[in-house]
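(Fold this chain)
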Amino acid sequence: MTVRERLHGMWASVAPSWGEYAEYADARGAAVTERMLALADPRPGDRVLELACGAGGVGLAAARLVAPGGEVVLSDVAPEMTAIAAARATGRSHVRTRELDLERIDEPDGSYDVVLCREGLMFALDPAAAAREIARVLRPGGRLALAVWGPRERNPWLAVLFDAVGAHLGEPVPPPGIPGPFALDDADRLTTLLGDAGLAAVGVEELAVPLRDTSYDEWWRRTTALAGPLAARLGALPAESYDALRARVREAVRPFETPAGLEFPGVTLLASARRS
C-alpha cells in the first residue's frame, strides 16, 4: 500500500468521529469560517468548491451566500466523509458532493468562482501540486480562501498531545514522510507556495483561535477522535499503555487549567488569493 493510499484510508477510518462531532468542529472553527468567507466573498450565482470538506461545514456556510443561482460542491477524498457532508446538506438543492483529491482535482479548468479549504491543504503529500490544481480550477478573477494551523508551539491544544504520544512511543508524531497539521505553519512558505502556483494578490494573516473545553475528559475524547493519523495509533494501543499515555497527557495540560475547564491558546494562518 502506498503512502497516499494509507492516508486516504486513515481519513476514511476517522469519518465516523467527524460525523459525530460535526457540530463541535463547526463551532470550534466558526471564527475561521467567518473570516474565510469574508476573504473569498461568495456571491449569489457563484460556483463554490470546498476541498477536504470533512463534514462540510465551510461549504454549507457558503451555500446561503450563493443563492439564488449559485452552487456549492462539497468534496473530499474519502467517500465516507462526503456521505456525512451529503446528509448534512439534505434539503439544499444547490449543494452536492463529489469525491475529489485536492492534489488531482477531477474538474475542468476554470470551473469555479471560489475555492475554500479549511485545515486540509497541510495534509497534502504534495501541497505545491494541490496549489496548482486550485489555481487551475478557478476562473479568471476567482477567489481562494484557505486555513492551515499556525506554528506547533503556538497551538499547545494539539502539540502537547503530539509531544506526549511521541515520548510515549519513542518516535516523532507524525512520523517522517507523513504530512501533519503543522506542515504549512510558516506564513512565508505558504505565501510562496500559492504565488508559485500562479495565484495573484496572495495574502496570509493570523487569526487567534483559542480552544476551550469544560474538562480534560471532554478535550481528550474529542481531540483524540478527530486527530486524523493519530486516532488509529491510539486505538491500537494495549489498555495499559493507553492509560499510561492518557495520564502523561493529563499532566502536560495542567498549565492550561482554569476554573471553567481547559483553555488553550491557538493560532490559524488564513491565506487568500485570486486567479489572474
Q: What stands out?
A: Residues 3-151+179-211+264-275 form a domain with the Rossmann fold fold (CATH 3.40.50.150). The chain has one domain: 3-151+179-211+264-275. Residues 12 and 83 are 11 Å apart (CA to CA). The longest helix spans residues 3-20.
